[in-house]
Amino acid sequence: MLGNTYDNQTCSIARTLELIGERWTILIIRDAFLGVRRFDEFQRSLGVARNVLQGRLERLVENGILERVRYQERPERFEYRLTEKGLDLWPVVVSLLSWGDRHAAPEGPPVLLEHRGCGGRVNDRRICETCGALLGPRDVKARLGVAPRGPHEPVQPALASR
Asked: pTM score, two decimals?
């Protein structure tokens, strides 16, 4: 088992896993790409304990992956948005989604990614299968796929940052 320090090794994968490799953390990032912003929305979507969610959100903010933005003054309320550093996780999320669709979704993909510009499907290399455009997170929307949703699946299939 790897520790939290890497004094004797140089491994970007291990360091990245320390930031985003925990189950709830990567699912929070997934939901953020799907348009989830507020604490209660994350909690409802994930079904995670509130204290666990709070800890993961705080860590993502501390590491510059999410930013905490006030949306209401009285009472004071915040939402969480992907930063540029967080948006750089787009290829990782698409790769995990594509791998899961191929190897862990026997009923079919639960979420389909589409190019906003032409409606074409997005492949595992983030390229539109219709027009050939290389796509980023703001170029894509998500819609429900053929598989039934579970009780803790994303609340909004709108894969793009606002």
From this structure: 0.85
